[in-house]
C-alpha cells in the first residue's frame, strides 16, 4: 500500500487481537513481577533497545512474517494488536457484560507489558489508560506498570483515583543519558526517567525500581549506590536488578552501537565479559548482586539471575538476600506465546 502509518519513526503493522492479550500463567511470575497475570497490546516495541531479546523469543510468531516480507528487521517495526482493549474487555466480562473476576479478595498483581513499552508515545499511553480502566472497573487486581517514558506520569495522574492499586516503575539500568541514547535508541534519557520517578513518589504513587540491565564496569559498589540514590530506593516497594543477558543478535547490536559511538573501552570490556560465560560473566553477575545487597534491604531487593547446574547452589544460598534463581522454567517470557500457532495470521500493514 502507498499510505503507510509510522510511529516513532517506524513502520506500523497491525495484527488482530485475541484473548492472548491477557495471560493468566505468564513466566513473569517467576520473576515476582506479577501473580502470573500479564497484558500486552503489542508484539514489537516503539523503542529500539539494542539489548532487547524479545525477537529471539518470538522467532516462530507469525506476527513477524510481514515484517520480514517488507524487508525490515524486528527493531525497525512496530507490531500492534488491533482491538487489544476490546479483546481485554471480552476476557474480563461474560456475555452479559458482567465482570468475571470481581472477587474482593482477588487482589492479584498484573504486569504490563511483557513485550512492549506501555507509554512510548501519547497514543500508546492512551491505549494503556483505556486498558487499565477496564481492569480497574472489572476486577480488584493491582497493576504493575513498567516504562522507559516520563509519559507514565500522565498515566498515573489520569488514574489517580485508583493510586492504591497502581505500581509504577521506570527502567534505569543504563546510568548515562549519552550512553543510553546509544544503547536504548529512541527512548527518553535516564535523567528524564529519574525526574518522572521522583515526581511519582512526591505525589504519593506506589513505585518500584528496575535497575535493569546494568553493564560490566569498574566499580560495582559505586554504580549500585548511585542507582539506588537516584531512584530513591527507600521509597520503592521493591527494587529489581539484573545484568546484561545476551540472546539472539543482542550481543552484536550492543557492542557495535558502543563502538560506533566511540565507547571502545566499554565495548571491549563488554565483549570480554560476555564471551566468557563460565567465569567472567558469572563474576560480573555476582559483583553486581553483592553491590546491590550493600544498599538495598533483602526484603526489597529482587535480583534476577539465570543459573546453571554449576552456579545454582551459590545463588540459591543467597535467596534470602534477594536473589531470584531463573532457569528453564522461566525461559518462557510469556506463556501466551504458545497460543500463537492457533492465532489468525492476518496482518494489516497501514
List its salient traits.
disordered C terminus, 9-stranded mixed beta sheet, alpha/beta, 20% strand, 12 helices, 5-stranded mixed beta sheet, 350 residues, 33% helix, globular, TIM Barrel
Topology:
Elements: E1 6-7, E2 10-16, E3 22-23, E4 37-39, E5 42-44, E6 48-49, H1 54-57, H2 65-69, E7 77-82, H3 84-92, E8 109-112, H4 122-138, E9 142-147, H5 152-158, E10 166-171, H6 177-183, E11 184-185, H7 190-202, E12 206-214, H8 220-231, E13 239-243, H9 250-260, H10 264-275, H11 280-293, E14 301-306, H12 312-316, E15 323-326, E16 348-349
Helix pairs in contact: 3-4, 4-5, 8-11, 9-10
Rg estimate, integer Å:
20 Å
**Overall geometry:** globular
Q: What composes the largest sheet?
A: 9 strands, mixed
CATH class: Alpha Beta
Q: At CATH's second level, what is the architecture? A: Alpha-Beta Barrel
Could you say how many structural domains there are in total? 1
CATH topology value? TIM Barrel
Helix amount: 25-40%
Write down the overall mean pLDDT: 91
Molecular structure report:
- Helices cover 33% and strands 20% of the residues.
- It has helices at 54-57, 65-69, 84-92, 122-138, 152-158, 177-183, 190-202, 220-231, 250-260, 264-275, 280-293, 312-316, and strands at residues 6-7, 10-16, 22-23, 37-39, 42-44, 48-49, 77-82, 109-112, 142-147, 166-171, 184-185, 206-214, 239-243, 301-306, 323-326, 348-349.
- The strands form three sheets. Strands 3-4-8-9-10-12-13-14-15 form a nine-stranded mixed β-sheet. Strands 1, 2, 5, 7 and 16 form a five-stranded mixed β-sheet that branches.
- The longest helix has 17 residues, at 122-138.
- It is globular, with a radius of gyration of 20 Å.
- The model is unreliable at 329-350 (pLDDT under 50).
Amino acid at each position: 500500500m502507498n499510505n503507510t502509518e509510522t510511529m516513532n519513526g517506524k513502520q506500523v503493522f497491525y495484527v488482530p487481537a485475541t484473548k492472548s492479550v491477557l495471560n493468566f500463567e505468564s513466566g513473569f511470575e517467576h520473576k515476582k513481577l506479577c501473580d502470573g497475570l500479564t497484558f500486552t497490546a503489542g508484539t514489537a516495541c516503539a523503542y529500539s533497545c539494542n539489548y532487547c531479546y524479545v525477537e529471539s523469543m518470538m522467532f516462530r510468531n507469525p506476527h513477524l512474517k510481514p515484517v520480514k516480507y517488507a524487508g525490515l528487521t524486528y527493531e525497525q517495526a512496530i507490531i500492534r494488536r488491533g482491538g487489544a482493549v476490546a479483546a481485554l474487555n471480552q476476557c474480563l466480562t461474560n456475555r452479559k457484560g458482567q465482570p468475571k473476576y470481581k472477587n474482593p479478595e482477588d487482589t492479584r498483581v498484573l504486569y504490563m507489558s511483557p513485550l512492549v513499552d506501555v507509554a512510548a508515545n501519547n497514543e500508546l499511553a492512551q491505549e494503556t489508560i483505556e486498558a487499565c480502566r477496564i481492569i480497574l472497573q472489572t476486577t480488584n487486581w493491582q497493576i504493575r506498570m513498567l516504562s522507559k517514558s516520563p509519559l507514565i506520569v500522565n498515566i498515573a495522574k489520569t488514574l489517580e483515583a485508583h493510586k492504591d492499586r497502581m505500581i509504577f516503575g521506570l527502567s534505569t539500568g543504563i546510568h548515562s543519558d549519552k550512553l543510553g541514547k546509544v544503547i536504548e535508541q529512541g527512548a527518553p534519557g535516564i535523567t528524564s526517567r529519574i525526574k518522572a520517578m521522583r515526581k511519582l513518589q512526591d505525589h504519593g504513587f506506589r513505585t518500584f525500581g528496575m535497575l535493569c540491565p546494568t553493564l560490566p564496569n569498574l566499580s560495582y559498589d559505586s554504580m549500585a549506590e548511585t542507582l539506588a540514590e537516584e531512584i530513591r530506593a527507600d521509597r520503592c516497594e521493591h527494587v529489581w536488578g539484573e545484568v546484561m543477558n545476551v540472546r539472539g543478535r543482542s550481543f552484536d547490536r550492543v557492542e557495535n552501537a558502543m563502538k560506533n559511538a566511540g565507547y571502545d573501552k566499554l565495548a571491549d570490556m563488554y565483549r570480554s565479559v560476555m564471551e566468557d560465560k563460565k567465569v567472567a560473566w558469572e563474576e560480573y553477575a555476582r559483583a553486581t548482586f553483592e553491590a546491590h545487597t550493600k544498599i538495598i534491604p533483602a526484603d526489597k531487593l529482587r535480583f534476577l539471575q539465570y543459573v546453571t547446574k554449576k552456579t545454582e547452589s551459590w545463588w540459591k544460598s543467597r535467596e534470602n538476600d534477594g536473589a531470584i534463581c531463573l532457569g528453564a522454567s522461566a525461559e518462557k517470557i510469556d506463556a501466551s506465546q504458545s497460543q500463537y500457532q492457533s492465532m489468525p495470521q492476518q496482518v494489516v500493514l497501514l
